Write a sequence for this structure.
Protein backbone atom coordinates (compact mmCIF):
# COMPACT_ATOMS: atom_id res chain seq x y z
CA UNK A 1 0.00 0.00 0.00
CA UNK A 2 1.15 3.52 -0.77
CA UNK A 3 0.98 6.20 1.94
CA UNK A 4 1.92 9.85 2.32
CA UNK A 5 2.68 9.95 6.07
CA UNK A 6 3.30 13.68 6.58
CA UNK A 7 0.57 16.15 5.57
CA UNK A 8 -0.55 19.41 7.19
CA UNK A 9 -4.12 20.69 7.33
CA UNK A 10 -5.66 24.03 8.28
CA UNK A 11 -4.95 23.16 11.90
CA UNK A 12 -1.28 23.89 11.26
CA UNK A 13 -0.60 27.60 11.44
CA UNK A 14 1.26 27.55 8.12
CA UNK A 15 -1.26 25.54 6.07
CA UNK A 16 -4.81 26.24 4.93
CA UNK A 17 -5.83 22.87 3.44
CA UNK A 18 -9.28 21.69 4.49
CA UNK A 19 -9.45 18.03 5.58
CA UNK A 20 -12.03 17.34 2.86
CA UNK A 21 -9.59 18.62 0.23
CA UNK A 22 -6.79 16.48 1.65
CA UNK A 23 -8.96 13.39 1.25
CA UNK A 24 -10.06 14.33 -2.26
CA UNK A 25 -6.54 15.04 -3.53
CA UNK A 26 -4.93 12.04 -1.83
CA UNK A 27 -7.44 9.67 -3.41
CA UNK A 28 -7.04 11.36 -6.79
CA UNK A 29 -3.30 10.77 -6.48
CA UNK A 30 -3.97 7.06 -6.05
CA UNK A 31 -2.80 6.85 -2.46
CA UNK A 32 -4.09 4.09 -0.20
CA UNK A 33 -3.73 6.22 2.90
CA UNK A 34 -2.28 9.29 4.56
CA UNK A 35 -1.20 10.63 7.91
CA UNK A 36 -2.34 14.12 8.87
CA UNK A 37 0.40 15.48 11.10
CA UNK A 38 -0.34 19.05 12.09
CA UNK A 39 2.06 21.14 14.11
CA UNK A 40 1.50 20.55 17.83
CA UNK A 41 -2.02 19.14 17.47
CA UNK A 42 -3.95 16.03 16.41
CA UNK A 43 -7.12 18.00 15.55
CA UNK A 44 -6.56 17.81 11.80
CA UNK A 45 -5.95 14.09 11.88
CA UNK A 46 -9.06 13.44 13.93
CA UNK A 47 -11.26 15.56 11.67
CA UNK A 48 -9.88 13.99 8.50
CA UNK A 49 -10.33 10.48 9.85
CA UNK A 50 -13.96 11.23 10.79
CA UNK A 51 -14.63 12.59 7.31
CA UNK A 52 -13.21 9.53 5.61
CA UNK A 53 -16.05 7.11 4.83
CA UNK A 54 -14.08 5.07 2.31
CA UNK A 55 -13.23 1.58 3.66
CA UNK A 56 -10.48 1.31 1.06
CA UNK A 57 -8.66 4.41 2.29
CA UNK A 58 -6.86 4.77 5.62
CA UNK A 59 -6.24 7.92 7.68
CA UNK A 60 -3.62 7.95 10.44
CA UNK A 61 -3.91 10.57 13.18
CA UNK A 62 -0.58 12.21 13.88
CA UNK A 63 1.23 15.36 14.93
CA UNK A 64 4.56 17.07 14.24
CA UNK A 65 6.27 18.34 17.35
CA UNK A 66 9.10 20.85 17.33
CA UNK A 67 11.17 20.16 20.41
CA UNK A 68 12.87 22.72 22.61
CA UNK A 69 16.09 21.77 20.78
CA UNK A 70 14.54 22.61 17.38
CA UNK A 71 14.20 19.04 16.14
CA UNK A 72 10.97 17.93 14.45
CA UNK A 73 9.49 14.62 15.55
CA UNK A 74 6.33 13.13 14.05
CA UNK A 75 4.08 10.84 16.04
CA UNK A 76 1.63 8.54 14.24
CA UNK A 77 -1.40 6.64 15.59
CA UNK A 78 -1.95 9.22 18.32
CA UNK A 79 -5.03 9.43 20.51
CA UNK A 80 -3.97 12.34 22.73
CA UNK A 81 -2.08 15.59 22.26
CA UNK A 82 1.66 15.50 22.90
CA UNK A 83 2.27 17.91 25.75
CA UNK A 84 6.02 17.78 26.25
CA UNK A 85 8.55 19.65 24.16
CA UNK A 86 11.59 17.90 25.60
CA UNK A 87 13.07 15.54 23.00
CA UNK A 88 13.22 12.41 25.12
CA UNK A 89 9.82 13.07 26.67
CA UNK A 90 8.18 13.62 23.29
CA UNK A 91 9.40 10.20 22.14
CA UNK A 92 8.23 8.64 25.40
CA UNK A 93 4.77 10.25 25.15
CA UNK A 94 4.28 9.05 21.59
CA UNK A 95 5.26 5.50 22.41
CA UNK A 96 3.17 5.48 25.59
CA UNK A 97 0.12 5.90 23.34
CA UNK A 98 1.20 2.97 21.22
CA UNK A 99 2.35 5.44 18.60
CA UNK A 100 5.10 5.33 16.01
CA UNK A 101 7.73 8.08 15.94
CA UNK A 102 9.87 9.31 13.08
CA UNK A 103 12.33 12.15 12.66
CA UNK A 104 11.12 14.61 10.02
CA UNK A 105 13.59 16.17 7.54
CA UNK A 106 16.64 15.54 9.77
CA UNK A 107 19.06 17.87 8.00
CA UNK A 108 16.75 20.70 6.99
CA UNK A 109 18.37 24.11 7.28
CA UNK A 110 17.66 25.75 10.64
CA UNK A 111 17.00 22.51 12.48
CA UNK A 112 19.27 20.68 14.92
CA UNK A 113 20.45 17.09 14.78
CA UNK A 114 19.19 14.60 17.33
CA UNK A 115 21.56 13.10 19.87
CA UNK A 116 22.54 9.52 19.07
CA UNK A 117 20.64 8.18 22.10
CA UNK A 118 17.43 9.74 20.79
CA UNK A 119 18.03 8.41 17.27
CA UNK A 120 18.27 4.91 18.69
CA UNK A 121 14.75 5.29 20.12
CA UNK A 122 13.17 6.25 16.79
CA UNK A 123 11.02 3.82 14.84
CA UNK A 124 11.77 5.43 11.46
CA UNK A 125 13.60 8.28 9.76
CA UNK A 126 12.10 10.46 7.04
CA UNK A 127 14.54 9.67 4.25
CA UNK A 128 12.69 11.71 1.65
CA UNK A 129 10.85 14.96 2.25
CA UNK A 130 9.53 16.65 -0.88
CA UNK A 131 10.23 20.11 0.52
CA UNK A 132 13.80 19.41 1.62
CA UNK A 133 16.79 19.64 -0.71
CA UNK A 134 17.98 16.54 -2.52
CA UNK A 135 21.39 16.61 -0.83
CA UNK A 136 19.85 16.83 2.64
CA UNK A 137 17.49 13.96 1.85
CA UNK A 138 20.52 11.91 0.85
CA UNK A 139 22.14 12.71 4.20
CA UNK A 140 18.97 11.54 5.95
CA UNK A 141 19.04 8.24 4.07
CA UNK A 142 22.71 7.79 4.89
CA UNK A 143 21.96 8.41 8.57
CA UNK A 144 19.17 5.83 8.48
CA UNK A 145 21.60 3.26 7.12
CA UNK A 146 24.16 4.09 9.80
CA UNK A 147 21.61 3.53 12.56
CA UNK A 148 19.85 0.66 10.77
CA UNK A 149 16.54 2.54 10.80
CA UNK A 150 13.78 2.06 8.23
CA UNK A 151 12.84 5.09 6.13
CA UNK A 152 9.68 6.79 4.95
CA UNK A 153 9.09 9.16 2.08
CA UNK A 154 6.62 11.99 2.61
CA UNK A 155 5.40 15.20 1.04
CA UNK A 156 5.25 17.42 4.14
CA UNK A 157 2.43 19.06 2.18
CA UNK A 158 1.21 22.48 3.25
CA UNK A 159 -0.61 23.04 -0.04
CA UNK A 160 -2.95 20.65 -1.81
CA UNK A 161 -0.75 20.51 -4.89
CA UNK A 162 2.08 19.02 -2.80
CA UNK A 163 0.13 16.02 -1.50
CA UNK A 164 1.60 12.75 -2.70
CA UNK A 165 4.94 14.21 -3.80
CA UNK A 166 6.55 11.96 -1.19
CA UNK A 167 5.37 8.37 -0.92
CA UNK A 168 6.04 5.35 1.25
CA UNK A 169 5.36 1.80 0.15
CA UNK A 170 4.22 -0.24 3.14
CA UNK A 171 4.77 -3.92 2.50
CA UNK A 172 1.48 -5.17 3.86
CA UNK A 173 -2.01 -5.55 2.44
CA UNK A 174 -4.06 -5.06 5.59
CA UNK A 175 -4.90 -1.72 7.20
CA UNK A 176 -4.98 -3.54 10.54
CA UNK A 177 -1.26 -4.24 10.24
CA UNK A 178 -0.01 -0.83 9.10
CA UNK A 179 1.44 0.13 12.46
CA UNK A 180 3.20 -3.23 12.82
CA UNK A 181 4.58 -2.96 9.29
CA UNK A 182 6.00 0.52 9.95
CA UNK A 183 7.64 -0.48 13.22
CA UNK A 184 9.15 -3.62 11.71
CA UNK A 185 10.64 -1.66 8.83
CA UNK A 186 8.51 -2.97 5.98
CA UNK A 187 8.79 0.39 4.23
CA UNK A 188 10.29 1.77 1.05
CA UNK A 189 10.49 5.24 -0.51
CA UNK A 190 8.80 5.09 -3.91
CA UNK A 191 7.71 7.34 -6.77
CA UNK A 192 8.65 10.55 -4.96
CA UNK A 193 9.53 13.95 -6.38
CA UNK A 194 10.68 17.26 -4.98
CA UNK A 195 7.92 19.83 -4.77
CA UNK A 196 10.12 22.63 -6.14
CA UNK A 197 12.85 22.57 -8.78
CA UNK A 198 15.27 24.66 -6.74
CA UNK A 199 15.51 21.85 -4.17
CA UNK A 200 17.23 19.58 -6.70
CA UNK A 201 20.71 20.76 -5.79
CA UNK A 202 22.43 17.48 -6.61
CA UNK A 203 23.14 18.53 -10.19
Amino acid sequence: MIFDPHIHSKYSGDSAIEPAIILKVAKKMGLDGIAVTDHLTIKGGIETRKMNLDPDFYVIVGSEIETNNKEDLVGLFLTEEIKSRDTEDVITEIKAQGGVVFWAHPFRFGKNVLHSDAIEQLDLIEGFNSKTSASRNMLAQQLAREYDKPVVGASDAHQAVEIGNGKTLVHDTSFDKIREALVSGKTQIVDSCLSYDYLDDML
